[in-house]
C-alpha cells in the first residue's frame, strides 16, 4: 500500500515536469494556433544552458539565474527569426519549419558541447533526502520539483485568470481575429506568449538537468508526451494541460509498476513481465485514443468549434 | 549484373533534374592514392552518438599511431554514420562498398545495425571487423567466415556479472533491464552463471526517464545486490537517481551502464559501482599506457572500451595486412592472417576462437576517482580466464 | 491532361535514369529507396492533399507491409503472389480498424490520434521477439516473383519499384479525379456545404484512409526487400514525420509533389553528409526552414514562384 502511494507520488512528479513543458506548448498552440515542434528542443536548451552556466559558475542557483533569461532571449530570437513568419501559414508548413529548427538545434548542441551526456550538480541545499520507507530515501530535490511545478501552475492560473494580460491570452485562444480587431497589438501579445512559453520549457529543462541525463535529442520524446498531454487536456487550456499532465504521469508510472503484475494473472511470469512492460509503454496512447474517440476535442476544449 | 550498366555519369547528369539530389555524387573518394580504404561504421546521430564517437576516435588514434598505414600500405578511413537506423545503414554501406570500393569494414556499436549490414558486407566478399556489437547469433549458427570481432559475445559479459555475484556470495539479486532483445539477453546471460534467487525481473521502456517507481520496488524487496544493463542515457539517469534515493549501500552490479562514455555525466554518483569488461583504462601494459595517454591528449576525454576495441582492430588489421604483404586478393590467406591475431592487444591476452570471436579474460571493474578528479573504471579482479563463448560450439564455419 | 505532364516527365526520367548516369548499384539502391518512400508519400498525399487528413502514423502502414514479408518468410512463404496481397490487406485492415476511430477527429487531433495508433503498432513490433524484437529480422532472400529471384537483380528491382510508383500515382490520380475524389476535396474545403448537399464525408474519408493504408503496405513490401532487413524503427513516429515532410516539401499542388519531395529529401540526406561532414544537419535544418518560408506550395510551386519574381 505504501508502495502504491509512493508510486502515486512519483507519477505526480513526472506529471508536473510534463506540465511545465506542456503549458508553454498549449499556450502557443491555443493563442496563436501555431504548432511548435521545436518546443522540445527548447526544453533541451534549458538543460544545456544550465549545464553550461553550472560549469562556469559552479553553482546550480547561478546557473538557474542565468539560464532562464538566456532561454527567454533565445525563444524571442527564434520567434523573430523564424516563427513570426509562420503565423499565417497552415499547420503543415509550421510542422516542417519547426522540424528544421529541431534538426538544427539538436546538431548545434552536439557541435558545441559534444555528444557525450553532461551533468549538472544538484544544489547542496536540496541534496539529501528523507527516509520514506526502510532503505529508500526520497530526495528533497524531487519535492522541490513538485513544489516549483505547483507554484508555477498556480502562478500561471493567477496570471491567466486574474490579470488583463491573461484575459487577452484567453480571448486570443478563443478568437484571435476578434482580439486584434479590438485594437490589441496582437504581434506583441504573440511574442510575449511565445517567449514565456520558451522560458517555461527552459525552466523544465533546468529543473530536470540534475536528475536526468543532459544529451542531444533529450527533448524529442518529451515533446511527443507533451503533445499527448495538451491534446488530452484540450488545446489552449491551462487547466486541461495541468490535469492531463498529472493523468499521463500517473498512467505512465502506475501502469509500469502494475501492468506486469496484472498480466501475471493471465500468463506465466516471464512473458507477463515482457508483455506487461510493452503494454505499459502503450498505455498512454491507448488512453489518448480512447479519450479522443469519446471527446474529439479533448477534455477541456477552449476554442468554440 | 550490376556492372553491366556503368553509365557516363556526370556528363548528362547535370542536364537532368536528378543531379540536384546528389545521386551523381562525383567520385571524390574513389580517386585516392592506390592503397587501402577502410569503412568505419559508427553511430554519430542522436543520443547514442557518444558511443560512436568513442569508437571512431579509437580507430583514428590507432591509424595515427600507425602513421595512416596498415601493414605498410597507405590507408584512408571513411567514416559512415549509421544513424542507428538499420535501413539507412544498409544503404550507406552499399554505397561505400560499390562506389568507394572499401576494402575492409570495421566498427558498429549496436547489434541491430550489425545484423542489418552483415549480409551486404560479407556477401560482397568484404571482411567486417566488429569492434563492439557481438550478438550471439553471429557467434553460433550464424557465424560467418568474413566476420571477426575484437569485442566479445554480449552474453559473456553479462554472465561474468552472474559469476561475480555468485563469487561474492549474494543470494538474492534484483534484475532490471530495458525491454528489448539485448535487455532480455542480458538477463539470460546473468542467470546462466548466477545460481541464487532472482527476486524480481523488471523490464523498463527504452525511453524511460524517471526510475523512481523501480527504485521503490528495489527498496521494498531489499535484495543483496542489483544487476542491471542500462546503456547510454538510461544508465546516466538510473545511476544518479539510485544514488539520490540512498540505495547505494545495495551493491550495484552492471554491464555497459557505468563506463567512460557515461561517467562524465554520472560522476561521483557512480563511484564504487561495479561493471564487467574485457578492458579498463588502468590495465598495466605498455601499449595500453600509451593508448590512454595519447587518447586523452588528442581528444581530451578518457577512452571507453568502444575506443579500445577499435584501436585493437586497427592493430589487428595492421598485422594481418602485413602478413599478406598488402594484397587482399587471396581471401583465405587474409582470413588466416586475421585469425592469427598477431598483435599486442591493449588487453594483453587476446586470440580468436574458431567462430572468430575472441577467447579472452573477463574482469570485474569498479568506478574510481582518479587523482585529477575524473572518473574511470579500474580492474578489481579477473573473473573468467580464456573464456570461450558458449555459442562457439554451434558454429560451423563454411 | 496538362496537369499530369510534370508527373509523367518525372516518371519517364526515373525510367531512363539507369541509362543516363545512375546505373551503378548504390545509385540504383538509393533511387529504389526514394521511389519506395515516394509510394509512401504519394499515398499519404492522397490523404493530406485530397482529404485534408495529415496522418502522423503512416509509417505503421509501411511497417505492416514489411512485417507481413517477415512473418510469411518465417513461415517459409516467399512468393510475391501471396506476400503482396497479404501485406496490402494487413495494412488496409489496420487502417480500417484505426480509421474508424481516427476519422471522427480532424485537424491536429487527427495528427495526434494517428500518432497514437502508430506508436501502438511500433511497441507491438518491438515486442515481437519471434521476429527479432527490437533487433530486427534479416531476410535471407528477396520475395520471389513467379518462382524467380527477379528482385535480386537491382535493375529489375528498379523497374518493379518504378512500376509500383506509377501504379500508386495513377490510382491516386484517378481517385482524385473521380466523383469520389471531388467529394473528398469538397469536404476538405468546406465540410458543412458537403453535408448540406446530402453527403456524409465520413465514409469517403474512411475509404481513402484504407486505400492509402493498402498502398503503404505495398511500399512496405518493397522496403523490406530493398533493405533485406526489417526493424521496428521502420514504424517509428520519426519515420512517419519524414513521410509527412516529403509530402509538404514537395508541395500539395499535385501528387507528383510527393514523389519529388521524397527524391529530394532522400537525396539531400545522402549528399549533404558527404559535402559537409558530421554536422550536416546544421545546414539541412535551415534549408527546410527556408524552403517553407520562400517556397510556398513546396517544390512543385517553384516554377510559379519564380514566374512571380520575374513579374516582380
From TrEMBL, chain A:
Keywords: Amino-acid transport, Cell membrane, Membrane, Transmembrane, Transmembrane helix, Transport. This is Amino acid/amide ABC transporter membrane protein 1 (HAAT family). It is a multi-pass membrane protein. It is found in: Cell membrane. Pfam families: BPD_transp_2 (PF02653). CDD domains: TM_PBP1_LivH_like (cd06582). The keyword Methyltransferase does not apply. Belongs to the binding-protein-dependent transport system permease family. LivHM subfamily. GO terms for biological process: amino acid transport. Its main location: membrane. It comes from Humitalea rosea. The chain crosses the membrane at residues 12-30, 37-54, 60-83, 95-113, 140-160, 189-212, 224-254, 275-294. The lineage of its organism: Bacteria, Pseudomonadati, Pseudomonadota, Alphaproteobacteria, Acetobacterales.
Automatic annotation (TrEMBL), chain B:
InterPro entries: BCAA_transport, Leu-bd, Peripla_BP_I, TAT_signal. It comes from the Bacteria. It comes from Humitalea rosea. Transmembrane segments: none annotated. Residues 1-30 form the signal peptide. One of its GO terms (biological process) is amino acid transport. The keyword Transport applies. This is Amino acid/amide ABC transporter substrate-binding protein (HAAT family). Gene3D superfamilies: 3.40.50.2300. Keywords: Amino-acid transport, Signal, Transport. CDD domains: PBP1_Nba-like. Residues 36-369 form the Leucine-binding protein domain. Belongs to the leucine-binding protein family.
UniProtKB/TrEMBL annotation, chain C:
GO terms for cellular component: plasma membrane. It comes from the Bacteria. Keywords: Cell membrane, Membrane, Transmembrane, Transmembrane helix. Pfam families: BPD_transp_2. InterPro entries: ABC_transp_permease, LivM-like. The chain crosses the membrane at residues 39-70, 82-103, 109-134, 155-176, 243-268, 280-302. CDD domains: TM_PBP1_LivM_like (cd06581). It is a multi-pass membrane protein. One of its GO terms (molecular function) is branched-chain amino acid transmembrane transporter activity. It is found in: Cell membrane. This is Amino acid/amide ABC transporter membrane protein 2 (HAAT family). It comes from Humitalea rosea.
